[in-house]
Specification:
120 residues, mainly alpha, 4 helices, elongated
Length: 120
């Protein structure tokens, strides 16, 4: 009979351990073997670039639209929407992309936990 309390403690301990090594232990061979993902970092950089572009273009549209009445005043409202909702849209898009990498990390952690499981 398997001791359930010891088994619970073992799984709790192994599931809290991450499959990714600490930053100081990431080696070049892990990078070249594709064990270290660089795409999440690139996605975060693209998020900040997209946010800054939305804010800049939103500001230009607000300035351009505020000087006119009538047909060109639509730029004012489009600029406000781009300024407010643009960064939110960029954030949601980037989070959707990062979810795939989080799923990969979680599956790797589960695999390592199963590999380290004691034989019954």
């Amino acid at each position: 009979m398997v001791d359930r309390e010891n088994e619970r403690r073992y799984y709790k301990k192994t599931l809290t351990q991450t499959s990714r090594p600490p930053k100081e232990e990431i080696r070049m061979r892990d990078f070249w073997a594709f064990r270290t993902m660089v795409t999440p970092v690139i996605i975060q950089i693209l998020f900040w670039i997209g946010t800054v572009l939305c804010l800049i273009f939103g500001t230009f549209m607000i300035i351009y639209g505020s000087g006119y009445f009538g047909a060109k005043s639509q730029y004012l409202w489009k600029g406000v929407l781009l300024f407010v909702l643009g960064p939110l849209g960029v954030r949601v898009y980037c989070e959707i992309l990062i979810i795939f990498f989080r799923i990969n990390e979680t599956l790797t952690e589960i695999k390592h936990a199963i590999d380290r499981r004691p034989e019954a």
